[in-house]
């Protein structure tokens, strides 16, 4: 059974202008402390894991208090590393996993993030967190393909789980299509990452998925049981899907989830879109916008 994730985009504030950003952050919106605490209270029974994201969650004034309120969950904080300090680290409870975004080595990372010095500040944060559980998420874009081996070495040095993410062409990625991999590059990286997964075991994870004939019975989706809440309170199937099930400022989270579970979309997603998978998709590496996102909620 998949772990069930609730992602809370607690703030739209962010220091970076990442070229793939699904939410085109920075933007308006912030979920206040007491609203988030109520959502966490309602999340029990529906979710196993809470993700605090944004934007940059460490720019939210109450992030540390919110992590303590979520101690019944495994908590992930997705961060650039820019706003992370020693005092905050000391106050984080033990159920927190830090998830750092890395999109290349040195100036390659800075260019992709639109922020000079971002890589140096990220390394400082990784040094600070040597003794904490952490994950490094890497976006698979054209500029970092030659740096995969260096990225693996960096993750091993800092004792981090390494997670390679495919670019999903939504948000700012639609304006920066030069970052997208070609069919040949996707094939090459898919083969390389599958080999590395077999060699490295649980150290390395990848979301670069290719639809094949075996998926006609349903795709092995990592996003089953997942939902996302935007900085303005909209509840969506995930951070990438444009559909909205409801808003937590108008309806309780539990009511929204119960209604969503009866929708055609969630019923299809939980079966891996077994009745929608086809082999004639334009890009077999992009089931998101060619299958998943074609569903209207």
Secondary structure topology:
Blueprint: E1 5-9, H1 33-43, E2 49-53, H2 63-69, E3 74-79, H3 86-91, E4 96-102, H4 107-113, H5 118-128, E5 134-140, H6 148-157, E6 161-166, H7 183-200, E7 204-206, E8 227-229, E9 234-236, E10 246-247, H8 253-261, H9 264-269, H10 287-290
Would you kindly provide a written description of the structure presented here, covering whatever features stand out?
The chain is α/β, with parallel strands linked by helices and 297 residues long. 30% of the residues lie in helices and 16% in strands. It has 10 helices and 10 strands. It has helices at 33-43, 63-69, 86-91, 107-113, 118-128, 148-157, 183-200, 253-261, 264-269, 287-290; strands spanning 5-9, 49-53, 74-79, 96-102, 134-140, 161-166, 204-206, 227-229, 234-236, 246-247. A 10-stranded mixed beta sheet has the order 7-6-5-4-3-2-1-8-9-10. Helix 6 links the parallel strand 5 (134-140) and strand 6. Helix 1 packs parallel to helix 2. It is globular. The two termini are 25 Å apart. The mean pLDDT is 95.
Main attributes of the structure:
single chain; 297 residues; alpha/beta; ten-stranded mixed sheet; 10 helices; 10 strands; 30% helix; globular
């Amino acid at each position: 059974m998949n772990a069930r994730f609730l992602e809370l985009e607690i703030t739209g504030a962010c220091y970076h202008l990442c070229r793939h950003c699904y939410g085109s952050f920075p933007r308006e919106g912030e979920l206040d402390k007491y609203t988030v605490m109520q959502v966490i209270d309602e999340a029990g029974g529906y979710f196993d894991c809470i993700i605090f994201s944004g934007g940059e969650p460490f720019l939210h004034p109450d992030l540390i208090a919110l992590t303590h309120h979520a101690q019944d969950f495994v908590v992930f904080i997705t961060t650039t590393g820019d706003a992370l300090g020693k005092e905050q680290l000391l106050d984080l409870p033990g159920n927190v996993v830090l998830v750092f975004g890395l999109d290349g080595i040195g100036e390659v990372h800075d260019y992709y993030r639109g922020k000079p010095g971002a890589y140096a500040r990220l390394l400082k944060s990784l040094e600070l967190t040597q003794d904490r559980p952490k994950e490094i998420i890497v976006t698979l874009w054209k500029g970092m393909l030659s740096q995969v081996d260096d990225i693996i070495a960096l993750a091993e040095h800092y004792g981090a789980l390494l997670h390679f993410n495919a670019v999903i062409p939504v948000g700012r990625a639609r304006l920066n299509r030069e970052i997208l991999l070609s069919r040949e590059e996707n094939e090459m990286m898919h083969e390389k990452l599958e080999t590395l997964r077999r060699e490295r075991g649980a150290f390395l994870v990848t979301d670069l998925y290719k639809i094949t004939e075996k998926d006609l019975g349903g795709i092995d989706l990592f996003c089953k049981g997942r939902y996302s809440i935007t900085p303005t309170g909209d509840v969506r199937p995930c951070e990438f899907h444009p559909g909205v099930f409801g808003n937590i400022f108008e309806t309780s989270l539990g009511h929204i989830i119960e209604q969503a579970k009866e929708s055609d979309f969630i019923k299809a997603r939980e079966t891996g879109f077994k009745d929608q998978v086809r082999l004639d998709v334009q890009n077999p590496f992009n089931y998101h916008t060619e299958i998943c996102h074609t569903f209207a909620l």
